[in-house]
Amino acid sequence: MNRARTALLTAAGTLLLLAAMEAAGRLGVLGESWPPLSQVVAALGDPVTRDLLGRALAATATAAGTGFAAGALAALAVAVTGVLLPVLKAGLDRLAAVVHAVPLIALGPLLITTVGREGTPSVIAALAAGFAVFVAATSGLGAASEAHRDVFRALGASRRSTLVRLQLPAAVPLLLDGLALAAPAAVLGAVVGDWFGAPRGLGVLLVSSMQNFQTELMWSAALSAAAISLLAYAALAGLRTAAARRFA
Q1: Which DSSP letter does residue 167 get?
Q2: Which end of the chain is more exposed for a tag (fewer CB within 10 A), N or C?
Q3: Where in this chain does the record put each ABC transmembrane type-1 domain (predicted)?
């Protein structure tokens, strides 16, 4: 019953939002830069527009996916290193905080000269996703109960054995929470990375359409980025719900 009610409320909220977007465009309350949603959808009927948007979407999704995977793996490796080598944990936490504090947009010129224009979106996506996964992994690896830890100590388990058999399974729900938050961040990072001269991508399309006053195309690109972010979040959130039953 609760699931049905949640689904109904979600659908109602989504329809209300779409109706508000359409009404704002029809009434012109937000100016010419906010077209009706139906007009944006109609623009996708043009094969040229659809093909252009499809190539840009594929490029951004690829960069975001690559960066998400790389950032998540790197963050998990750093968190695990802090568990296996406690003397390094405080330093790794501070390093992660410092890296996260640097504005991603400020790294663009540096990344262009090191990884190139095509690789910049993936690297920025990795940096955007990595911190959320690191925080979730660090919290998750410390989520095991003290009673269970005492049992492992009493049995003489090594840090590695405790990590594999106790801490990692206990960390799964929180880790999936971090992955769900990191996925939209990776998409945003990839879009920002596109701005630094990438040959194609939603970020390139956003800037180009904005400069050329192609309002429908600009909104199509923006809504596409929002759509893949929501889909990635929903998929990982669903996986988290399923995993909670197994590992909670």
Answers
A1: I
A2: N
A3: 53-240
